[in-house]
Structures are given as C-alpha cells and as structure tokens.
Amino acid sequence: MRIIHWFRRDLRLTDNPALEWACTHADALCLVYIHAPQDEAPWTPGAASNWWLNASLAALAQQLSAQGQQLIIRNGHSLEQLRTLAQEFKADAVCWNRLYEPAALARDQRIKQSLSEQGLSVRSHNAALLLEPWQVETGGGTPYRVFTPFWKSAQQQLPPPQAVAAAPQDWPAAARLHSESLDTLALHPSHRWADKLAGHWVPGEEAALDQLDAFAERIADYAQARDIPGRDGTSRLSPHLHFGDLGPRQIRAALSTCAPQDVDKYMSELGWREFAHHLL
Question: In this structure, are residues 34 and 5 in contact, taking their beta carbons and an 8 Å threshold?
C-alpha cells in the first residue's frame, strides 16, 4: 500500500500513532508537511510561532534524512495539495494525527470526505491529548464546563502510564517527489529579535526530550518555583507540546517514576491543557 503521512502539529518520530500506522502498513511512504496558514484564518500564526515552526521542521527533516526518508514540503491549501500529491504518488491512503480547534476539525472533515470520494482510504489518530474531548462527559452525557470535575473524571479514565511507541525502525520505501525549500516558506523573521529566541529555546524533538529529562530532575520544586520569575521553575515544555515536538503521553510516562506528590501539580496543568481542547 502506498501511504501519505501528513505531518501537522506532530513534528516528531516517537509517540506518533499515525506515522507508526503508516510505517506498519506501507510498502511506499510519502511524508509531507503542507504550509497552509490560510486554512487557520483568522487565527493565522504570528512571527514567533513561525520562527519555532521553521526550526522544528528543519530538525524533523534532518531526522528523516538520517533514516533515508524525505520530508516533502508543499505550500498552498491543504486539500488541493493532498489531491495533487495523491495523484503524483499514486497513493492508496492518507493518514494524519487529529487537531481539535473548530476550524481545523471542519477542514479535516471536508478533506476526509473529499479524499474518500477520490477513492483513498483516510485514517486519523490521536497524538496530541491524553483523552480526546468526546471521551470525557458528565453523567448526563454533556460536556464538562468546570475544570475540577472534568479533571477528576478524566483521571479516572486514564490508563496506567506506559512506555510510548519508539521511532519507527523499519521504514518503507521513500517517496522521491518535488519539495519546496523550507526557505521559500519565509518563516524565519527578518528582524533581529529572533536571535534572542534562539538564545533561550531550541525547537525540535531531540531538544524537547532533553528538556523533559531536565524537568524531571527538578520537578520536586515545580509547585513553588513555577511562580517565581527569577527561578528556572517552569517545565519549558509548552511550545514543544504545541508543535508536537513531544506529546503529553511522553511527559506522563517520563514523570511516572517521580514521587506522586511532586508530579500532581504539573499533571493538573496538563489537565488544564486537556480541558482547553475539551472546551474548544
């Protein structure tokens, strides 16, 4: 089977269910990132987000190249680019990891219907959340509107922390198709303020995992130190989570060996992230 995996905000090789499925089932694999900020209007990303995206995509492309794969970059409306790519690659299936903002959900539903009508098999997976919004409901079957009962219910549904899927080891034959240069997306700001970001942040999966390891070593101080601006007390994982350099399952697994009283406060903050998606 010839499969297209569509990278979105899941820019990592580990704990990536859609990529894992594609590598398991594909004879030939096409890995694509489609730059389509217009699809997110009126909430298009700003300059700082674009800076992070640029660096994270560069890191992902390097990782894939080391595995003999190519990250194909296309620019334009997502559906149009996927249709074109499916024809070029003679694809049988397309897969991706789900997004949960209303505009993204509506877009993805349109894409799934259109590609299915084109004769393609379409699969989506959860890489971004511990529990998806439709999995947590009140006893009356309605969405929660208050965090505390939401998180209490969600915690009761969470499975025990477990090791997450490693990066694929056996890669299918790689697609060799035209790709836009990352530079043509013009994501890197022309202003010098971006140099300051680079002095404090390193995007990408490898850096995210290093940051997670560092946070696990000092999590005992998190509940107090996170509120003190002069302390290195926060997790520094938020942008990595947003762009999918790592996922919440990886965080939960990494912190599972820490003392519960040290982890509870941070896990509740992850719970607020889950709740925000639930409300969206």
Answer: no
